[in-house]
Amino acid sequence: MKNSKNVLKYLIGKGSINNLSELLSSHKQNTHIYLVDIFFKDNGTLTNSLPIRSNDLLFFVDSTDEPSTNYINNLLENIQNQYTTFPNAIIGIGGGTTLDTAKAISNLLTNEGKAEDYQGWDLVKKAGVYKIGIPTISGTGAEASRTCVMTNYKTGLKLGMNSDHTIYDQLILDPNLTKTVPRNQYFYTGMDTYIHCLESLNGSHRHALSDAFSHQAIQLCREIFLSEDMMSDENREKLMVASYLGGCAIANSFVGVVHPFSAGLSVALGTHHCIGNCITMTAMEAFYPKEIEEFWKMADKQGVDIPRGIAKNLPEEKYNTLYNSTVIHEKPLANALGQHFADILTFEKVKETFKLM
Ligand code: NAD
Ligand code: ZN
Predict the structure, then answer these.
(1) Ligand 1 atom closest to 140 (CA)
(2) Ligand 1 pocket member 140 (CB < 6 A)
(3) How far, in Å, from the CA of 281 to the mean position of ligand 2?
(4) What is this structure's pTM?
(5) Tens of pLDDT along 40-76?
(6) Whose Cα sits closest to atom 25 in ligand 1?
(7) I want to staple 252 with a disulfide (CB 3.0 to 4.6 A). Which of 29, 207, 214, 319 is the partner?
(8) Pocket of ligand 1, candidates 42, 255, 274, 275: which has the most ligand atoms within 8 Å of its Cβ, to mutate?
(9) Residue 2 belongs to a domain
(10) What is the CA(350)–ligand 2 centre distance, in A?
(11) Does residue 1 fall inside a structural domain?
(12) Which residue range is the domain that position 160 belongs to?
């Protein structure tokens, strides 16, 4: 039985980012490291409002690609070469990519070694540097979860540092920060919550509290994505809540069929996590028939584009890669389809499913 930990403290509400300086006042002595999504590099309003002091360091996280172990190692080295006093606060401001990067850097500053040494479960031995997470796009639940997903391109392993030490000490959930997210991206990332929760609720590995988190997060997603404008002020706040609840839900349960197929797309074709999930949903008739109908209703209502046909006509070796990088995810697939999932997910079935997308 798992002894569960959640984020220790959180602030929520429009303008709550203005409390950052006060939150940092108990960590005044040393350097603060700000890791901010690259979108805010050209849009100075946010960075100009941050309480950055002369000894603090600001880095922009390039979210063009999802985090790799190499990227994290290089960023860590950069930080270590530049700080004047050992950092005592890390502030991650951005989407899943930036929030995960900040978690990994926090852990690595106090635990020796490289990012790849900690890919797995409970390998992080010491608490990281105190960290504050400030999401600027909602849906992955990275702000709430105990992992930070990274790809090791040498080994092909896409796995995070699953550890209680990875959980944020403090969150600031300020819906003003998600106003500028492009509509399609807002939908793809938002749907990550809906998909995490539907996979969890349809699985066999159940957890009473997780189920409650999932039901509430799905209900909020319905209210948001079936309304006239998913990006209204009220809906952006609701989606921040849904994302947080979805992250708590998934911390104690497993995903199902969608995430392994989406991971296959990511490894074989470089598709990003959230758009990959949406593309996968279009081919889930055999596994989640009710949910796929609701998914299309939401996408149509919001007028978003879901790319089609990306895995329709690929060379045979690509289908081999897609197959291998899908069925490798034993835990979620067994959660969804039982221990003998490989009898259902034959090479032909997996290939046919990718062709349907
Ligand atoms: P992201 O961080 O990858 O960013 C997506 C895009 O949105 C980027 O182009 C970014 O610049 C832009 N963006 C972010 N905020 C914006 C804003 N306010 N205005 C305009 N543009 C903005 O997005 P994501 O979908 O939240 O994160 C995906 C990542 O999360 C993947 O790396 C995935 O592996 C990871 N993930 C982590 C967990 C976890 O539990 N740790 C769970 C699911 C996914
Ligand atoms: Zn996800």
Answers:
(1) 43
(2) yes
(3) 12
(4) 0.97
(5) 998 888 999 999 999 999 999 999 999 999 999 999 9
(6) 189
(7) 207
(8) 274
(9) no
(10) 20
(11) no
(12) 9-178
164 with 254, same domain: the answer is no
Residue range 105-120, pLDDT digits in tens: 999 999 999 999 999 9
Among 178, 197, 226, which residue terminates a domain? 178
Residue 350: inside a domain, yes or no?
Answer: yes
Q: What is the CATH number of the domain that holds 128?
A: 3.40.50.1970
Domain finish residue from 133, 159, 178: 178
Q: How many domains does the chain have?
A: 2
pLDDT digits (tens, 9 = 90+) for 296-333: 999 999 999 999 999 999 999 999 999 999 999 999 99
Q: What was the pLDDT predicted at 125?
A: 98
Does the CB atom of residue 170 touch ligand 1 within 6 A? no
Low-confidence ranges of the chain (pLDDT < 50): none
Strand partners, 160: 149
